User: Fold this.
Amino acid sequence: MIAAGGAWRVLVALGVTWLAGWALARRLAPGLTRAETAAWAAAAGLLFQAGLFAFLAAAGIDPSKGPLLAGDAAVIAASFLIPGRPFRRPPPPPRRPLDPVALLAGGVAALAWLTFLVPALAEPMWSTDFLAIWGMKGKAFYLAGSLPGRIFHDPALYWSHREYPVLVPLCLAALARLAGGWNDQALAILFPAIELSTLLLLCGFLRRRAGSPRAGAVAAALAALCFPLYHPVNAGTAEIPFAFGAVLAACATLDALSRESRAGAGRLFLAALFCAGTKQEGTLFAFLLAGTLLLACRMRAKALALAWRSAGILVLVPAVHWIALFALRGSQTRRDFDFHLFLPARWPDFAERLASVVSRMILREGREALVALLAIALFLIVTRRGFADPLLPVLAAQIGFYAVAFSVSSFDPMYAVDGAFRRITTTLVPAMSLVLAARLAPAKDLQSGDDSGA
Amino acid sequence: MRRFRRVLPGALLLILGASEAASIRARDVVPRARLLARELAGGTVSRAELAEFALDPVFGDFLDEVARRTPKSAAVAVIVPPRPDVYRYQAVYFLAPRRVLDSERIAEAEFVAVYARAMESPPGAEPLPNGFLSRR
Assistant:
């Protein structure tokens, strides 16, 4: 139970993970706000801890508390001992009177975060996807102290989506090892912590790029109010981590569009790896962002050359991740999809299914979210373009790909839409909040983040 | 008109936020907040109050007994109702690190645990809550 001290041990494990991440991320954060740095540290820490667990297991070393802590200590020590390039801190923003709208929006975000934190911690993680996929694998990794091949090859586990990336299970296993036990109630803290990181990133990024604490607070409030995403059923699944990954990748891409730098490239690397490691949709999102980078820079020859580098990171990192995952799990039958529907002979069938899927999305899900969708559409009409607008086609294309994926479902496509569309679409809400809030200060795309020295 | 144009974006975001906020359900938050408060105060929580076995609290007791009576290295065939699937997922998750098999792979199992199925228990089988456990 939560009161038995398990929660404190997981909190300490999360703190150690964050410190290791901070040691890594501080080299990638010149010019970023404190809130952004904290969020990037969380992402880097989770990636590092999961990677360390996998590395130790592959090296035949039991990834128990000792070796994990030693690895964390080593990276923290190295970050202080290895000299970094000096960088010029940007001038502090001018002092402004407190903005009541920003305060109110921040209060709403905090309150909404609490309404996820409390139910998430009230009981052991329980959703079907946690039991069947993410938690089952995490517990298996934790108990074995390795990545047992049985998880990927045992025919008795054919339903456990062996093709899925394993960042979330590895994070759960590593945190449990650091905390000294698999406590599936205490481990749920990871998910509100990731939500908090998402909100901090939105706040910090918009404060820097839009020069507006109000825009940051509004984005955080809009994201935190997405209760279908930040719902106890999603504690233990990859939805909340992917929503964080999408915001990381969106912020890193918008920075890359504004200015190329080594630190920015490092953040793109981290974001792409986080997205790809979390969900398959994360790889798609990174690829779409790469396309946006190239399209947005197509008119400027010099910018295009630089954009190729950033786009290359967004494509290559998920590709290398996929190869590593393939080496781990081998070839897997994709029982969810019938790709024969893409063959020319099946195009009429595919078109019919796609039309059914799209109409179901609009008539069922769209109708339920009609007020919100209308408000978004009107907002986009009445406000001027914002610097985050290049994300709009990415988000639309991502949803379009979901429609295509549902259309080639091996099962009833309507069942897939009803069961998954809302869940996976809500993961894009925090990134969409960024786009909307950026339009609150569209003329202030000046502070692109000073990465000059990195 | 100018004032209207200035206020409109904020009003639209307010509508958006309110429509998002309307999606919260008190039943997702209030009972769990009470549960957490009770736990933090040192109170006890019964399995029937938790979502993980809300479908069938007895199944949790059944899995506890299977775990207690089988070694961690064992392969256990767990025969559960075919629907909903969550019976199978719970069995695999809660009995880890045991290898949990379904009815098609009984031949690979050292133990067979049967839950809520109209099956006659073989001689020597141990009775469990709403089921039994037999060694093969």
Remarks:
- Residues 130 and 237 of chain A are 5 Å apart (CA to CA).
- Chain A touches chain B through 52 residues (CB under 8 Å).
- Chain A has 18 helices and no strands.
